[in-house]
Amino acid sequence: MIRESEAFKRAVIDEFFHSMTALFVNFPLLLDRGFDIKSLAFGILPAVLIDLDHFVASRSLSFARSVSLGTRPRGHSFLFATVVFLISLIFLPFELAWLLFSAMLSHLFFDSLGYGYGTPLLWPFSERKPGGRKFALSGLLLLFSLSLLFSLL
Predict the structure, then answer these.
(1) Which tens digits make up the pLDDT trace of 111-150?
(2) Are the beta carbons of 137 and 79 closer than 8 angstroms?
(3) On the CB side of 81, how many CA atoms lie within 13 Å of its CA?
(4) Rounded-to-integer distance, Cα 8 and Cα 14, Å
(5) Which of 4, 29, 55, 106 has a CB 3.0–4.6 Å from the CB of 147, allowing a cystine?
(6) What is the mean pLDDT of residues 55-83?
């Protein structure tokens, strides 16, 4: 098993990249909304907070255990992100709900690059773990394009 200090460093770097990926895909809408704190929170934090499911799945607060699962947790799925999005539409304006959804999806697309684990994006309908650079880049560009479209409406 990986050492705790190494796992912590890996987690910090990973969360930095998830934050930057969410910032990229949500940039047009964040710019349109003036980069206010609320929009930034909804547009970036979900991309980081989704990784809390690693601790739930590992039943531990250990970083080493949370990154040694062998696969990403079930919360890393389109179904989970969609359910959160649909529930958020009840309580939030569409733009904030979209920022949250897009941030979560940006995390999933970034994780689909692989790095040894694979992501069961279609769980519970399939255990297949789609991924690769083309898949991830296509997904991220789609999210960016949708955010651009929503910023123009």
Answers:
(1) 888 665 667 677 777 777 777 788 889 999 999 999 999 9
(2) no
(3) 25
(4) 10
(5) 29
(6) 84
Taking the C-alpha atoms of residue 96 and residue 40, their distance in angstroms, rounded to an integer, is 10
CB atoms within 10 A of CB 114: 14
Q: Do 18 and 107 touch, CB atoms closer than 8 A?
A: yes
Helix (H, G, I), strand (E, B) or coil at 102: helix
Residue 87's CB is within 10 A of a number of other CB atoms, namely: 11
Q: Where are the alpha helices (DSSP H) in 61-132?
A: 63-66, 78-91, 94-111
Which two three-digit tokens encode residue 57?
Answer: 């799945």
Which amino acid type is present at position 97? A
Over residues 58-78, the mean pLDDT reads 81
Give the position of tokens 């547009």. Answer: 43
- The model scores a pTM over 0.85: yes
d(CA 113, CA 107): 10
* Nearest one of 27, 18, 25 to 54, comparing CA atoms: 18
Sign of CA dihedral 93, 152, 27, 118: positive
Identify the CA nearest to 136 among candidates 104, 110, 97, 100. Answer: 110
Angle between helices 94-111 and 4-32 (to 10 degrees): 140
Which pLDDT belongs to residue 117? 63
